[in-house]
Write a structure and sequence with these properties.
Blueprint: H1 8-81, H2 88-94, H3 110-124
Length: about 120
């Protein structure tokens, strides 16, 4: 068995290298822990945001369904009572814009509007 004799300077150098390596490893471990913590926080925030979005979506869908049901029920009731339109021209007039400034299109529809209003007036006499 051979024993190696290491000079005190070499021992000191090796000790410094070992300390540097230990500090580096400790810094890496701390960095990994920090990254893991940040990742967990992001995951938790994403889960919370997703749950909030799903809740908002569910609420909005339910509200929309209720409004649609109410409109549908009102339409069915009006159809059953037949009070919605007195004649077919009122039905046509109810489905179009008769006011001058309300028409969103780009075509000229004033003559058609006048004809519909005149026909409606004739039928209501």
């Amino acid at each position: 068995m051979q024993t190696q004799l290491i000079s005190p300077e070499e021992q000191e150098r090796q000790e410094k290298l070992r300390e540097v390596e230990e500090r580096r490893m400790q810094a890496l471990q701390e960095k990994l822990q920090h990254e893991k913590q940040v990742k967990q926080e992001r995951i938790q925030k994403a889960k919370n945001d997703l749950a909030q979005w799903q809740n908002d979506r569910k609420t909005a869908n339910e509200k929309r369904r209720q409004n649609n049901r109410a409109e549908h029920d009102a339409l069915l009731e009006a159809k059953a009572n037949n009070t919605l339109y007195k004649n077919s021209w009122e039905k046509v007039a109810g489905n179009i814009t008769l006011k001058e400034g309300d028409y969103p299109g780009s075509k000229e529809v004033s003559r058609m509007r006048q004809a519909i209003l005149a026909k409606k007036a004739d039928l209501s006499k």
